[in-house]
Design a protein that fits this description.
Shape: elongated
Order of helices and strands: EHEHEEHEHEHEHEEEHEHEEEE
Strand order of the largest sheet: 4-3-2-1-5-6-7
CATH topology of the largest domain: Rossmann fold
Mean pLDDT: 92
Distance between the termini: 59 Å
Number of domains: 2
Low-confidence stretches: none
Number of strands: 15
Number of helices: 8
């Protein structure tokens, strides 16, 4: 069946290669967690060698993604035992091919290197020979040594005047590189999704005689709404670990006369989840119109009681009284919400 005749397009695939023994305390491990989360949230499925280190971190990050779900990570093992896969990868394919497994990983439309030694070098070099989009993190290892340069002088993609191993400092830059170049190398456009924001987010606390509230700002209406959701979570329940795997993903579609009404409706739902022991750490907002919005929120367990545990137990309701959500400049939105306590 031709791709054009499929009811849904095949998922866009990206491979990640890196050190198999990178320790969890290594900064590269934590960045790989962010990378797995960022790729899945941007709409990609992620292919790795299925082992430990960077491969494990990427799969763990995918579990923490707001858009994560079964089947978003694939591990291609060099050996024949599926038990050798890290515990976070979704789909495991034991090949029994040994080092030849690297050629399978390199066939992904885009291959990202995070550090790495000889195995990572072979995957990046094979991807280069196969005409794939190659991205290298500027960090210790082969990805950093290759980043910003062509591997050799061959003309791989005649239409790509700046063909090279594209260099990236962090996961956000990787996603931007994919958005710009994926179609040139993969022959299909990259996925499109509303950006995901992770918390907690800063806010200004508002104190009243019998009420409490917060005010946030954003550069778009969607960004302001996402900031409001995550700031409300920190305000009501205290800060939570935003890289932890999500225990609930909730989609809310609200309609109302204006954005302030929509904000109250969304935060009323969020307040209910906080009362049940969960706190929002991820939010993506798609504004359908000024009177309708689609919000996807990710939750983790509420932190243990502490000095920063918030006022969740005191919140009676999110109110329309004092609610505000408006554009105060072309690229500046302000949202204010008040709760009965």
């Amino acid at each position: 069946m031709a791709e054009a005749s499929r009811p849904h397009p095949r998922p866009a695939l990206v491979a990640v290669a890196g050190d198999n023994d990178c320790a969890s305390a290594d900064p590269r491990y934590r960045e790989a967690v962010r990378l797995g989360r960022a790729l899945v949230d941007a709409g990609y499925h992620v292919l790795t060698g299925g082992g430990g280190g960077i491969m494990e971190a990427v799969a763990y990050g995918a579990l923490a993604a707001l858009h994560g779900g079964p089947g978003t990570t694939l591990g291609i093992l060099p050996g024949g035992d599926p038990k050798d896969a890290n515990p976070y990868v979704d789909l495991v394919i034991p090949t029994g091919m040994g080092l030849a497994r690297n050629a399978i990983v390199a066939h992904a439309p885009a291959v990202i290197g995070v550090g790495g030694r000889a195995g990572t070098l072979s995957e990046l070099a094979l991807a280069w020979q196969l005409g794939r989009l190659v991205v290298g993190f500027r960090t210790d290892g082969w990805s950093g040594r290759l980043a910003g340069e062509p591997v050799d002088d061959r003309v791989r993609i005649p239409s790509a005047n700046d063909d090279r191993v594209f260099e990236a400092a962090d996961s956000d830059e990787v996603v931007r590189i994919l958005a710009r170049h994926y179609e040139t190398y993969a022959g299909r456009p990259p996925p499109r999704r509303p950006p995901v924001l992770y918390g907690p987010q800063p806010y200004e606390a508002l104190d009243h005689t019998a009420d409490a509230g917060i005010e946030v700002e954003g550069d778009t209406a969607e960004n302001c709404m996402a900031r409001l959701i995550l700031a409300f979570g920190a305000f009501a329940a205290g800060p939570a670990e935003s890289l932890a795997p999500l225990v609930e993903r909730r989609t809310v579609i609200c309609e109302g006369p204006d954005r302030a009404f929509l904000a109250v409706a969304v935060l009323s739902e969020v307040a209910d989840r906080i009362r049940s022991g969960r706190v929002p750490v991820a939010a993506a907002v798609e504004e359908l119109s000024e009177s309708a919005t689609c919000v996807r929120v990710g939750f983790v367990p509420r932190p243990e009681a502490s000095d920063e545990a918030g006022i969740a137990a005191e919140i009676k309701a999110v109110t329309h009284h004092g609610a505000r959500f408006e554009a105060v400049a072309p690229d500046r939105y302000v949202a204010r919400i008040v709760v009965d306590v």
